[in-house]
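User: ok so my PI wants both of these folded by tonight, can you help

Assistant: No problem, let's get them done. Here's the first:
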Amino acid sequence: MQLRPAGITINGPNPWDIQVHDPRLFWRVMRSGSLGLGEAYMDHWWDCEALDEFFERILRAKVNTGWKSQMWEAGLAMRHALTNMQSIAKSGIVGKRHYDVGNDLFERMLDPSMMYSCAYYGRGATNLNDAQKDKLRLICEKLRLTRGMRALDIGCGWGGFAKFAAENYGVETVGLTISEEQAVLARERCKGLPVTILLKDYRELPGELGPFDRIVSIGMFEHVGPKNYRTYMEIAAKFLKERGLFLLHTIGGHETFDPWFNKYIFPGGVLPAREQIESAIEGFFHIWDWHNFGKDYDPTLLAWYANFERAWPKLKDKYGERFFRMWRYYLLSMAGGFRAEKVHLWQILLAKQPVRRNYVPVRYW
């Protein structure tokens, strides 16, 4: 791994320089690439004060972590190409491995709305809470929600959108999640509201529940996988009324595979490329609007990390030091990735009908 092009010095004085505690680090990175780099950090073989800036620098400089890292990534890509890594049988793995980690962790890390997706700072918000409210309001405005509508939330998380739409727009929502912990807390948070939370994969949704006036999917498409994109869009089209609207909120890239993230954070996760989304919707939907605000994921992730670090004294006995380092690496490496603009955040407004001549896009600011 050549760090000089990124302006990073081993054991240097800058906050983005890495401090090596175990010289075996270099062989580990040569042998296992980005997986070895992440695991070595979890094992306390190296440190970095500004981990987010470290990753921003190496990503901007296109630093290669080694030929074996490329082999790992190629191997993951081949597995996704040859097998369905996000089948119904396998889809529950990410629920158990990530979203079921513990509601106590997510309640302390996230904002009060419990939104685990990019906040929106484009309307002047200066803190995470307001930025998440603005994101929810922006989604509702794009969907033109009105009282009495029925919405489907594919990948509803802890019920943040469903709760907001019910309280502010009088909308009835059916939410889907594959996480048992999310379902329990979402039902509790939405108690007394016209919200139904189902513990189901999107491919298991009973037909009698549809059709819906609106469909929304916020931060879930990253778990769908290339082999299922057409199926996903076909199901969304089936459950959407002819004059309905569908908003897809997703991280986007170029079918990115990272061995460390795949093993420790999001098993089976794949970032869709723009052309894959366009191909998947062909024949099902027309694109009404495509909004990219990936720059807002950097402050979102930093706010999550600040909350996590502040809450750690109450969490450490349950989760342990290795988990802390793993979670720190996850949040701050992602922040660096978005700051380096290697990945994006897209909100895509879709409809079965072509764009109307009198359609006026929602103002983003």
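One down. Here's the second:
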Amino acid sequence: MISDDRKVKILWFLFTLTIIIPIIDFILDSFNIFIPFIAILKFVLPLAILLGHSFLLFGPSRSAWLLIPPFVIGFIFEIIGVNFGVIFGGNYFYNCSLLGPSICGVPPLIPFFWSFFVYTGYLITSSFLVWLKIDKPSVQNKKLGLLFLLIIIDGLIVVAIDLFMDPVMVASNYWTWTSRGFYFGIPLGNFFGWFLIAIISSGIFRIREYFLPLKKITLAASIWLIPVIGYGGLCLIFLILAVKLQLGVIAIIGLAIMLPIVLLNLFLYLRYHYEIRQ
């Protein structure tokens, strides 16, 4: 039987690979070299880490309540958005030659990212509670105001991803907006749609968690840092792409939105780590 500490170390090892592999892929791409194995790992490893991290923290049953709603809700909303031009503020379509086959115009890869982003937002918000030694809202402590605040913060952390990602992905031709908008050609309604999906998905889990609180997690505190570093990794990937595409303003805005979340979290972690060692 593998101990929980060993499982956390394995997660960190796999997570480190997910950071190294895109860098290798970027270098190989610069030399026009394509290695299918690396392309597969870029998608398989994040999925393995997402499931492993969630199962270790919450168990399979609770993980389903956190991972399935954003997948299903995101998929439904995307289908409506692609085919009817509502929810996200305008008409758009995905480039299936880059994202793979689609169902009703939406590549199945897209709802996977919804699960990944919502999970990341939820974990980053929750990690702030850990570092600040604040109990999660529950029927025992009656912190309803904090519950709704956490859901809002979850949504804002997820929207911050798209404020950086969407202009970069559009410039990279992964999807196209046929309805022009104020934010670098992207309708502002798009970010409302993102916020809506994030708070509904996160809200389902947090409200369930409010009534059925999880027992205190005794795993190494570093497990909460994996989504935080992953968020920072996303920021770095978008930054590299933005610089490569000569999107200087987008790079500055993206860094200003995403990087402070990571830095503040790391600062609070270091303070927490220092305090518990005293």
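The chain has one domain: 62-277. The first helix runs from residue 4 to 30. Good luck tonight!
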